[in-house]
Amino acid sequence: xxxxxxxxxxxxxxFLMFSQTICAYCSRARRYLESNEMSFTEINxxxxxxxxxxxxxxxxxxxxPVLFDLRGGEAVFVGGSDHLMDYxx
Length: 89
Prior knowledge:
- By secondary structure, this protein is of the alpha+beta class.
- It has a single domain (3-86), classed as Glutaredoxin, CATH 3.40.30.10.
- Helix content is 39%, strand content 20%.
- It has four helices and four strands; from the N terminus they run H-E-H-E-H-E-E-H.
- It has helices spanning 3-10, 24-35, 51-59, 81-86; strands spanning 15-19, 40-44, 66-69, 76-79.
- Strands 2-1-3-4 form a four-stranded mixed β-sheet.
- The longest helix has 12 residues, at 24-35.
């Protein structure tokens, strides 16, 4: 099983966010989710070798944050911070 799929299955929150240590857009997404009272699991890609490449191959999304909606029982790729602002919470 891929690392990405394992995170989907392990996370018991509304959203899964992949971020990096220094990332203004990640902070923006974090604040947005918190202000809308959405629970999320955050995975720092700086600490997980190879995971970023797997995410790019799976989604085509090359920047952080990378967000997935886990509320429907199946992971739905949301996109980045800008996509989240337009996403139906």
